[in-house]
């Protein structure tokens, strides 16, 4: 996607249906509603994905973001939750069966439950939004800065660009993701879900979100990590004994590394807490657990080549998103 290098951009983390917080944040950033669209005379909003699921006003949030994109006031990435919804609706027909890219299991149904409930009376709208999700790019490479929902894997993105230079994939690519281990499956998992590692000795952890997992999310930028604790990147801490476990040579060799001499990179996805700040001079995560009464966060990007802590902006979600 080509972006005007001289324009200012406001990069916004995972909304998850917190539309009142989004309206407050846009107002704080100087956007105003004109003809039903939030606009700024000199700036553009860039959403990092995950507009849907979990929150109280998913339908309203989608309408707000879609209207901004349609009017040229914003761009929006595909997040793993948009991909989940798209995969749930996308079928793969073979000679002897029909299945869905996102299997219709109780767990997957639960993940989409809030979204499906809030669109239950608006099936035509939901079909239109599913079509729109298909048009969302998996990454934005604006040369001096980059956006991806979870993880910038340079090798996978270079390969993807050969067929989809702007990161916008087609239905055939989504259908190909139904095959575990396929290129499409690896792209969606890495770019939209990030990197992870299996817990040792068959351990599992139940996170704050109620899901039990055998893997934990890992950093893709760690310098010379030695232990599991050096690479963990999630709200749920590892047990101390696991955190102190040394990484094997083979495990280290499989870790990604985003160097500090690369362009500014912005991601969402990781449910951070505390005071919004850069992870490194060229890396920021803008997901601060908005839907868990955390913060909805933006970064005001101008011409800087290193991230500036003073340019993070946010609203506290608590009290803004009363249940329906």
Output the keywords:
single chain; 324 residues; alpha/beta; Purple Acid Phosphatase, chain A, domain 2; 4-stranded mixed beta sheet
Describe this structure in words.
With 324 residues, the protein is an alpha/beta fold. It has one domain: Purple Acid Phosphatase, chain A, domain 2 (4-Layer Sandwich). 30% of the residues lie in helices and 20% in strands. The protein has twelve helices and 18 strands. The strands form six sheets. Strands 1, 4, 5, 16, 17 and 18 form a six-stranded mixed β-sheet that branches. Strands 8-9-14-15 form a four-stranded mixed β-sheet, with no helix packed on it. Strands 2-3 form a two-stranded antiparallel sheet. Strand 8 and strand 9 form a beta hairpin. The protein is globular.
Report the CATH architecture: 4-Layer Sandwich
Which fold name fills CATH's third level, the topology?
Answer: Purple Acid Phosphatase, chain A, domain 2
| Tally of discrete structural domains | 1
Give the overall shape: globular
CATH class: Alpha Beta
- Give the CA-CA distance, first to last residue: 37 Å
Number of strands: 18
User: Which structural class fits the helix and strand makeup?
Assistant: alpha/beta
Strand content: 15-25%
Low-confidence stretches: none
Count of DSSP-assigned helices: 12
